[in-house]
Specification:
By secondary structure, the chain is α/β, with parallel strands linked by helices. It is 22% helix and 29% strand.
Length: 411
């Protein structure tokens, strides 16, 4: 019997995790073909920062080597960007002209870095930070140039700044926000983070807007001009100002897109033969850029593709954040800012540089922001996700997960 043909566009973490989950449930159900735009097998994109910092190698972060695809009978086309989808004929066409027929199609096209259209953004030495090629460019540039500017003080920007500093570059970070990682930290934790990174030699321009990039006579970037008129020298400019769902292919195919490929609770698009998973998908108005929600989506999509999806739905994810900078411990989850209807428990120890804020609403923990001591982060995250009433735990909540009475009893 001919198996139905499953084609996946995209070879990243969310898509390949979907295939892994599918192969557990229904290993022989489909004839699977994967198109990957990059010339690499599936790798752990969130570990690019340790590679940049010199703490890991590219081989260390490969998740599924080529042998895995072969062992699973998956046809893999690397370095092949899909340029069109014909929904009527149920075919996809790659840049080399290759056309492949599908019965079910997964869009796992991920996201694209947002490059602000400021004057000079096309100069040599101006890059985004998204993939292995970008990481190679930064490592190579650090060998021959001295001054780097990172535009964006979020997670990705700070990881890039730390990695470039580890590579010996002088690094400045330009950030529009009033404090670093304002989507993941409150002002107090953001200040502690800034002080820790300044101690490593990174400089910051906060509340600053980039107005233009200037180049030298060779066409390479040489400086960043800010809106207040100040100028920051630069041989390399890394744009880390956010990401956007990669929906161009889906839009051209006529799928419903709105800040992502719109999917239902099964991860199905407006075409019943096409599914979307990961950063390219918009579920209930949210496009997730963190790995944990994408893996939760993968399990749901795999169940439906396996024909075992009765009652299996994706209802959204509670997210948490960490920073992959060795020696800096921070964690946040849920509604860590709070509002007029919440209560806050705060521990601030400036001597040991430990800060903890727990946000409560109606006797449940709804948010946490930790800096310096994150050992209980996973426990707090579990309480937030489960919406558990904390009851008598309230007075002890700041001190972390209570040990069971018999944990340390002698035999």
């Amino acid at each position: 019997m001919n198996k139905p043909r499953l084609v996946m566009i995209g070879n990243g973490m969310a898509g390949v995790r979907t295939l892994e989950e599918l192969l557990k449930l229904a290993p022989n159900r489909y004839d699977i073909t994967v198109f990957g735009a990059e010339p690499h097998p599936n790798y752990n994109r969130i570990l690019l920062s340790p590679v940049l910092a010199g703490e890991q190698t590219l081989d260390d972060i490969v998740l599924n080597p080529l042998s895995w695809y072969a062992a699973q009978g998956i046809t893999l086309h690397l370095g092949q960007k899909v340029v069109s989808i014909d929904r009527a004929a149920r075919t996809v066409t790659a840049a080399d002209g290759r056309t492949t027929t599908y019965d079910q199609l997964i869009l796992a096209t991920g996201s694209l870095p947002f490059v602000p259209p400021i004057p000079g953004h096309t100069l040599d030495g101006v890059i985004a930070y998204r993939d292995i090629a970008d990481t190679h460019t930064m490592i190579d540039t650090a060998r021959t140039h001295r001054r780097a500017v990172v535009i964006g003080g979020g997670v990705l920007g700070l990881e890039a700044a730390n990695g470039l500093r580890q590579r010996g570059m002088d690094v400045a970070v330009i950030h529009l926000g009033a404090w670093l990682m304002e989507r993941q930290l409150d002002a107090a934790a953001g200040q502690l983070l800034r002080e820790s990174l300044e101690a490593r030699g990174i400089t910051f321009h906060l509340g600053a807007q980039t107005q233009a990039l200037h180049g030298d006579t060779s066409g390479r970037v040489s400086a960043v001009q800010l809106a207040d008129g100040s100028v920051v020298p630069a041989d390399l400019v890394v744009m880390a100002a956010g990401i956007r769902p990669h929906t161009e292919l889906a839009e051209r195919a006529g799928l419903h897109c709105q800040r992502g490929v719109v999917v239902d609770d099964r991860l199905q698009t407006s075409d019943p033969a096409i599914w979307a998973v990961g950063e390219c998908a918009n579920h209930r108005g949210v496009a997730y850029g963190l790995v944990a929600p994408l893996f939760e989506q993968a399990k749901v999509l795999a169940a439906h593709l396996a024909g075992q999806g009765a009652g299996v739905v994706y209802t959204g994810s509670t997210t948490s954040a960490k920073l992959k900078v060795t020696g800096i411990e921070l964690f946040s989850a849920g509604d860590f800012m709070g509002d007029a209807h919440t209560q806050q428990l705060i521990l601030n120890d400036p001597l040991d540089r430990v800060y903890k804020k727990l946000v409560l609403r109606d006797n449940t923990l709804v948010g946490a922001c930790l800096y310096g001591d994150t050992l209980d982060g996973n426990w707090y995250f579990k309480l937030i996700r489960e919406h558990r009433a904390i009851g008598e735990l309230r007075d002890e909540l700041m001190f972390g997960e209570p040990q069971s009475l018999d944990t340390h009893q002698a035999d």
